[in-house]
């Protein structure tokens, strides 16, 4: 987390957030964060555990954000994605 050098109020996207544990850790730094995951089950678990955080079901290859985030965080998701170039273009589009 220290490598992220998060600033109070920064808007962060957690890509492949899973059950939301790291999403919540980032939230506790004062960042504004949205967690996305392809798995409906993971998003349901995250939403139950952390109702104060916005979680969305979204495929990393079809991100629906544009110019919204200071940073995109992903802990253990990118290595599972076969369409890396598509995802990277989507991440770039998400960033301010």
UniProtKB/TrEMBL annotation:
Keywords: Methyltransferase, Transferase. GO terms for molecular function: methyltransferase activity. Residues 12-96 form the Methyltransferase domain. Signal peptide: none annotated. Pfam families: Methyltransf_25. GO terms for biological process: methylation. Transmembrane segments: none annotated. PANTHER family: TRANS-ACONITATE 2-METHYLTRANSFERASE (PTHR43861:SF1), TRANS-ACONITATE 2-METHYLTRANSFERASE-RELATED (PTHR43861). This is Methyltransferase domain-containing protein.
